[in-house]
Amino acid sequence: MNQKSVILLKGGISSEREVSLKTGTAVAAALRQEGYQVIELDVEHPDFELPDSAPVFICLHGTFGEDGQLQKRLEDNGRPFTGSNATACRVAFNKLLARDSFAEAGLRIADGGRWKPEMECKLPFVLKPVADGSSVGVFLIREEQERNAAEQVAGKHGNYMVEELITGRELTVGILDGKALPLVEIRPLQGFYDYDNKYTSGKSEHLCPAPLDDITTARVQECALKAHDAVGCDVYSRVDVLLPENGEPVVLEVNTIPGMTELSLLPEAAAAAGISFSQLCCQILELSVELRS
Description:
alpha+beta, four-stranded antiparallel beta sheet
């Protein structure tokens, strides 16, 4: 890149605002370390003005950040930006659309679909928003007494989906420039990998590279790459996968703008591949600008 300047968008209007602020602060520091002039912009509403004409590094998670709305605006204005295109972001963020894409690619997914209040869901099952991130609003229902509270929340929200609850090892796979990074296995010390366990230090263990044999590792990485391609992702993503005992990997979702904080999984996987945090940020930016130049 000839111009070493970038506009970094952080904060946002979603339930993941606080995480986005942390991601943006960390990425801005890393880019400055690599010699970039970084203009940080805290996005507090959708009708913001972009200063300068520099490329945009998107650190917004959730609605109006990861769902394709912002990407469509930038595409229409001819502004280079990091990560996947608007269509891929829209599909990946909507878990029902993503499920369809995974199934068409021949990947294994959990049985499920859109939730309706009149449904009789067989235990155990998962209730989760169709479009949200960071496990916000996710319920794992294993016993009958857990059902009512979860279904009340889903009924008020109005845009929930249901899936069978599959048990297995929780894995995540970073994708960078068409290649799968080392696997990370996630082991929450209590409960499941919810918002609190994700963003509170000491509440989850991360094993990277995940302690799996080479054949299994390659199989999970192949599934992740197929999922990344199935929704049309560019440059980078992070794919969440469940590995049941003696079973095929189950693809859960593709994160088009994964977290980049000190507790985040993508930087951890990159580090295991010998890529420092600042190098990772630069690669994401430079690959994205090259793609859209």
